[in-house]
Design brief:
The chain is α+β, with helices and mostly antiparallel strands and 288 residues long. Helix content is 45%, strand content 22%. The longest helix is centred in the middle third of the chain and has 38 residues.
Length: 288
């Protein structure tokens, strides 16, 4: 990295794309990026869109007085460049949109208790304009929830947005859970065929398989025990169910795992929860 005479030269060289890197004191740049003190604080970065247009993503972050001085120097050195003000130029577009949305929500919170909402409405508009300008430069579509946030002018609209957000997040969670369960189904087949040895499940249950090689039972959490111990536990489960099940059963498995629940849906042993359907299916395969 080239050493230059002072931090002003570093900022000037970066802004005018002179050299590949330079450093003076605690300000330095590498290729497109210019940093204060370390790579943990990215001040700005040169970017190019698909139309070949150039701009600079410039941070809104603060850190310390010396870093603030660096930011000012870099801003002044790049006055001739098109700047896009962003919460943090190191973030992805999804993270940036989420940041803008969060900032607008924070401002909108103040609409609840004010009789003069104008300044908050103006701030919401300013934040949305930043997001829109960034999106327009790169040709990105602004998320619908952020568009709605940018239109907030009163507390009623804010409450409507929160309701839409809750519904959207619920739908997203449902889609994510459905995809996780689909993936689990595939991976569970691989686990039963001994292609993988551990499986973190999405449905909150653990599963069983029989290892013929050493006549043992294995769980998806990679706990192993003898087939005889498994049959003994199965007998306990059936006997307990005949009595109506139990919670805090006062029994242990293998002398160390507390049996905390047995009911007609599942059993809970230590950190394991195994469905009764899975247990009976396994027992049937063993001829118990």
């Amino acid at each position: 990295m080239e050493r230059v005479r002072d931090i002003y030269a570093v900022a000037h060289n970066w802004a005018n794309r002179i050299g590949e890197s330079a450093k003076a004191s605690n300000l330095f740049f590498e290729d497109e990026n210019i940093y204060s003190y370390g790579r943990h604080f990215l001040i700005a970065k040169h970017v190019v869109n698909t139309r070949g247009e150039r701009a600079v993503l410039f941070t809104q972050r603060t850190y310390s007085r010396s870093t603030s001085a660096h930011v000012t120097i870099v801003r002044n050195a790049s006055n001739h460049l098109d700047k896009l003000s962003v919460p943090d130029p190191d973030l992805s577009k999804e993270e940036l949109f989420e940041k803008w949305y969060g900032e607008i929500r924070n401002v909108a919170d103040s609409l609840e208790d004010t009789r003069k909402p104008k300044k908050y409405i103006l701030e919401i508009g300013r934040l949305f304009d930043e997001a829109k300008r960034y999106a327009d430069f790169f040709g990105y579509e602004v998320p619908e929830v952020l568009v709605k946030a940018g239109e907030i002018e009163n507390s009623e609209q804010y409450h409507d947005l929160l309701q839409q957000e809750r519904e959207l997040r619920k739908a997203q969670e449902q889609r994510s859970q459905a995809e996780a369960l689909r993936l689990q189904k595939t991976r569970l087949k691989d686990w039963r065929k001994f292609k993988i040895n551990y499986l973190s499940t999405a449905d909150g249950f653990d599963y069983l398989r029989f290892n013929k090689a050493d006549q043992s039972v294995e769980t998806t959490q990679k706990v192993e025990f003898s087939l005889a111990a498994g049959r003994q536990l199965y007998g306990l489960v059936l006997a307990t169910l005949e009595k109506g099940g139990c919670t805090n059963c006062g029994e242990t498995f293998l002398g160390r795992y507390n049996i905390t629940e047995i009911n007609d849906k599942f059993i809970r042993v230590g950190c394991h929860r195994v469905s009764l359907t899975e247990i009976k299916s396994f027992a049937k395969k063993q001829g118990w």
